[in-house]
Amino acid sequence: MEQIFTYRNQKKLRWGYTTGTCAAAAAKAAAFFLTGDEKTQISLQTPGGRVAHFQVQKLVDGEMTWFGVQKDAGDDPDVTHGAWIYGAVSRISKDMGFRRSVESKSDRTCEKKETVEKHDVDQEACTDALARAYEWEPDTDADHSGQFRLFLTAKDGIGLVTKPGLSCPVGNYAINPVPRQMIFQSVTHVLEETEAHGDYLIQLWIPAGRELALKTFNPKLGIEGGISILGTTGIVNPMSEQALMDTIRLEIHMRAVAGEHSLILAPGNYGERFLSEHLGIAIDQAVTCSNFIADAIRWSADAGMSEILFVGHIGKLIKVAGGVKNTHSKYGDRRMEIMADCLPGTLDEQVRNEWTDRILGCNTTEEALEYLKSWGICDQVMHTAVSRMQHYMKQWAGGNCDVQVVTFSTVYGILGKTSDSDRMIERWRQS
């Protein structure tokens, strides 16, 4: 496999390939095998313009012969790194007698309802595969037009879409449009060389997909039973923030499509756990926004959300009180400076300076809270802090959302909350 590198923060990082690229390579190897040409190496061009080279592995499973490519995510912390993605291509027998109906010709790749008429019980496995298959729709000017048709489906390990708002229709496998096109084109290039005729079925299989999916956002997005086949460029940019941002934005979009107008945002595990254990709100009701605080609020407002309940640990949210839009430490750590700035303005100047120095010398927000508690001003400081958090969050929402804030400590519990947060909490408890 060709090695591609980039430099980030003076570190040399290796690029990888998407599940879509790996699936296309596996399907291409399977197509060659169908034509009588068994390959151990496959090359293909990614949508991003780079040529990718893969070693392929043959696996015989009963009467089916699969060809596998091992996913290499490079230096990106991708949970699918190392997973085997298999593809198989088979001729569909003429006695299948299947038909397909298309609802919307304007968006046939995403909005199809595909049905199968079963004529022979011996064809049951093939029939089940065809039931959720995508059909390739080539350009009308293609040389092979009318010679053969391609259908794409999955065996196991690729998730099924159960909620609207994704780029795949509900009830179909989560194989996104760009990877679908890559897979179809890869197989087409092989079959064209043999002047193939008839109908062909491309199947994908990821043995570890079901377990890997539990480590992804798929369950929250309504993708069940496996991972997604993804990729717009075909290449994985190591340590890319864009993929995570896209996922967060997509989840917000899907909730809006489902008719929701209220949203809970939480930066991470601390916030989710606090929601469940202390506020009595199920974790799956919240959207995890990581460090992208301002972006998540803006996306929520743009999606039409009228209410946002933001719940987060003081270690992150104190930064928001200073107008920090992204709370990742690489953008600077101003936690103690912002907390010191929330000290009461009525303090004697000497006392204020002394206490400011104490806070600035703290390593953690929990340590600073100990001082605030001992001085008897913690509630006052937190009131100022959450008011400022709310101010900035409403600003980022463009003034179109009612934003309420709850911040907490793992040691002291709830530290501060805005005036109308209890109403939102109670409604979410009952939902």
Question: Can you tell me about this structure?
Answer:
- With 431 residues, this protein is of the alpha/beta class.
- It has 2 domains: 232 residues, 2-Layer Sandwich (CbiD-like), CATH 3.30.2110.10; 189 residues, no CATH class.
- The protein is built from 14 helices and 23 strands.
- The protein has a 6-stranded mixed β-sheet with strand order 6-7-8-15-12-11, with helices on one face.
- A hairpin with a 2-residue loop joins strand 6 and strand 7.
- The protein is elongated.
- About 8% of the residues have low confidence.
CATH topology heading of the largest domain: CbiD-like
- The CATH homologous superfamily of the largest domain is named CbiD-like
Number of domains: 2
Which of globular, elongated, flat, extended, rod-shaped describes the shape? elongated
Structural class: alpha/beta
CATH architecture of the largest domain: 2-Layer Sandwich
Q: CATH class of the largest domain, anyone?
A: Alpha Beta
Helix content, binned percent: 25-40%
At a glance:
Helices cover 35% and strands 23% of the residues. With 431 residues, it is α/β, with parallel strands linked by helices. A hairpin with a 3-residue loop joins strand 22 and strand 23.
Note the main attributes of this structure.
single chain, 14 helices, six-stranded mixed sheet, 23 strands, 2 domains, 23% strand, 431 residues, CbiD-like, alpha/beta, elongated
